[in-house]
Amino acid sequence: MNLRLRDDQQEALKERAEAEGRSMHAIVLQAIDRYLEQEADSATVRRLGAKYAAGHADLLRRLGE
């Protein structure tokens, strides 16, 4: 896989890596891990929300009245 960054992104990433004493590669991997974890959490919340909304539809309808 190749990752193509805009020039401004490349420069900002390089500066951040230097400031943190880390490699650009390490920062990108961490960002990907965070993104994947966040998306997995969001999917879980959506799934559970739908499950409990369906299971408690009558209660939710009465609360909305």
UniProtKB/TrEMBL annotation:
Keywords attached to this entry: DNA-binding
Entry annotated with the keyword DNA-binding: yes
Ranges where the Ribbon-helix-helix protein CopG domain occurs: 3-39
Matching Pfam families: RHH_1
GO molecular function: DNA binding
Stated name of the protein: Arc family DNA-binding protein
Organism of this sequence: Streptomyces macrolidinus
